[in-house]
Write a structure and sequence with these properties.
This protein is an alpha/beta fold. It folds into 4 domains: 125 residues, Response regulator (Rossmann fold), CATH 3.40.50; 174 residues, 2-Layer Sandwich (Alpha-Beta Plaits); 98 residues; 108 residues, Arc Repressor Mutant, subunit A. It is built from 22 helices and 10 strands. The strands form 2 sheets. It has a 5-stranded parallel sheet, sandwiched between helices. Strands 6, 7, 8, 9 and 10 form a 5-stranded antiparallel sheet that branches. α4 links the parallel β4 and β5. It is flat, with a radius of gyration of 29 Å.
Length: 550
């Protein structure tokens, strides 16, 4: 199956092309979309793309420049260029740079796109690949690196050490267990604005951060490092080796200088590019497989000490011992459930205040706090669902904003508790269970801004809830999705404009917030069963006959 990417700075165009054909029927998978050439190039470096449909005229990096750069890095990728009529000469230029076809956006229909795809697939199949030998060598090297990474992760997570015998043998034979250490690098996303970062934005920031981390590590350690795959998280773990051990020697001084330079460069670059604050911690330097368990234990200590606020960047905390206490909050989830079911605002506040006090005043392990937050979230969602409020709404308003499993510090735990308390008081106290007027507020917002580009996110911000939560309650209240309501309302207004105003179809499209007349016509036909032009002719005929047909 051919992997396809669509690149256009107009959201409407992206949506229109995505829905124009059945991609699977044409042996294609729509693997990615991008809003400009730079974004597209960055994504192509992460996922293999066979065919690119790219607008010629875009901000940041235009389609022609994208094609030039991509041809150097990905010579087998095939381009189909999207253009407006006035950009015809640019389209001809695109063909000179080996675009297989060009399509005029305002005239784009399914058969035209299907024909271009077939042409692109044929061209893609004819282009040469890397030699089998080099490809095989590359895959073997990458696969070996992945297995080593998994082995080092297992060393961190298993207190009793690695159990997999194949992992043990691979690590012993790899030569990486010579003067090594773990780096723990957590990130504080609250530093950007003081507010939690949405999941999608956070993922994008983490992609940038990993890229900066990789470049910094290459600059300082050369090839002697492995960035472990920790999944979706707010921290990175790096394993560096060949760092030299021994007493106070010149080699050790060089090593400490490297550590300091790595820390300063990474902290500075992450802050400059993303506004995210980061810290860099490392274990002591060890040597040989027998010390790997000790090194992993030091890493786990770093996590706990950073969580409690006992560690500073660059500080050696391996020898510091901490005595942990139990939180003493067994059954608090059930208490919260009971108070929500009773709609007792005071009781809800008292439960959450007690939790906050214990978190602040107890020297507890991070795992205790994570368990507690999951318990509170689960019980709150269960209680709200009894009132017809979907469980997902709770996650949308709380958990999706501050993902529990990615919390790194006690400060973040306290922030999450505060958010849950405020959310529950808002939902219970404002009559949101059930029959909340939020959906009606959203409906009025659409009606009052019908000639604007209305999005679910903008409307949710106006109402004061998350987009997911608004979508849920709107569908429940009106038995219609938010997007369908917006489109239907816009088309009703378009009909009035076509009857009352002497306006062209294109003028009406832009007036209603549609960035492209082609997409506006498609939406109009879906709801009215005819094109805007045909409807306009019908209105004129009715005026001429003096009859108004509905």
């Amino acid at each position: 199956m051919f992997k396809v990417m669509i690149v256009d700075d107009e959201t409407i165009i992206l949506s229109g092309i995505k829905s124009l054909v059945n991609w699977e029927e044409h042996d294609c998978e729509l693997a990615a979309t991008a809003r400009n050439g730079q974004d597209a190039l960055d994504q192509m470096r992460k996922i293999p793309i066979d065919i690119v449909l790219a607008d010629i005229n875009m901000p940041v990096m235009d389609g022609i420049t994208l094609m030039k750069k991509a041809s150097e890095e990905f010579p087998n990728t095939v381009f189909i260029m999207l253009t407006n009529l006035e950009e015809f000469e640019l389209a001809r230029q695109a063909l000179k740079y080996h675009a297989v076809d060009y399509l005029v956006k305002s005239q784009l229909e399914a058969p035209m796109l299907e024909k271009a795809l077939e042409h692109a697939k044929t061209e893609r199949g004819s282009r040469s690949y890397r030699t089998v030998t080099s490809a095989a060598d590359y895959m073997e090297k990458e696969e070996k690196k992945k297995v080593i990474s998994r082995a080092l992760q297992e060393a961190v997570f298993l207190k009793n050490g690695i159990q997999n015998k194949e992992y043990i043998k691979l690590l012993k034979d790899s030569g990486i267990l010579m003067s090594y250490c773990y780096f723990y690098i957590p990130f504080d996303f609250l530093a950007i604005s003081g507010e939690p970062v949405e999941k999608g934005e956070k993922a994008k920031l983490m992609d940038w951060i990993r890229e900066m981390l990789t470049k910094t590590a290459e600059n300082i350690f050369g090839e002697d490092y492995i960035l472990l795959d920790m999944g979706v998280s707010s921290a990175c773990v790096l394993f560096a080796y060949r760092l030299y051990t021994g007493g106070i020697t010149e080699q050790e001084k060089v090593r400490e200088k490297k550590f300091d330079m790595f820390s300063r460069k990474l902290i500075s670059s992450v802050k400059t590019v993303t506004q995210v604050e980061c810290h860099v911690f490392h274990t002591a330097v060890h040597d040989g497989y027998d010390e790997l368990k000790v090194c992993a234990g030091e890493y786990r200590k770093l996590l706990e000490q950073y969580y409690l606020g006992l560690a500073e960047s660059g500080e050696d905390t391996a020898d510091r011992e901490v005595e942990y206490e139990p939180l003493g909050l067994k059954g608090v989830g059930s208490e919260l459930y009971h108070e929500i079911m009773q709609k007792n605002l005071k009781g809800i506040k008292n439960v959450m205040d007690n939790v906050e006090t214990q978190i602040m005043n107890t020297v507890h392990q991070k795992s205790q706090a994570i368990w507690l937050l999951n318990e509170l979230n689960r019980e709150a969602a269960a209680a709200l669902s009894k009132f017809g409020i979907m469980e997902t709404s709770t996650y949308e308003r709380v958990s999706s904003i501050a993902v529990i499993e990615s919390i790194n510090t006690r400060k973040q735990v306290l922030g999450w508790i505060s958010m849950l308390r405020n959310t529950l008081i808002d939902v219970v106290g404002n009559g949101d269970m059930p029959g909340n007027p939020l959906a009606e507020k959203a409906r009025r917002y659409v009606l009052n801004n019908i000639e604007s580009n209305i999005s679910l996110q903008d409307t949710a911000e106006h109402v004061g809830v998350s987009a997911g939560y608004l979508s849920t309650i709107f569908k429940r209240e009106y038995n219609q999705s938010f997007v369908d309501f917006v489109n239907a309302t816009k088309i009703e207004h378009a009909c009035r404009l076509l009857k009352e105003k002497d306006l062209m179809v294109m003028e009406i499209a832009y007036r209603l917030g549609y960035e492209n007349a082609y997409y506006f016509s498609k939406v109009f036909r879906k709801y009215m069963g005819m094109s805007p032009t045909d409807y306009q002719r019908r209105v004129e005929d009715e005026k001429n006959t003096g009859e108004l047909k509905k």
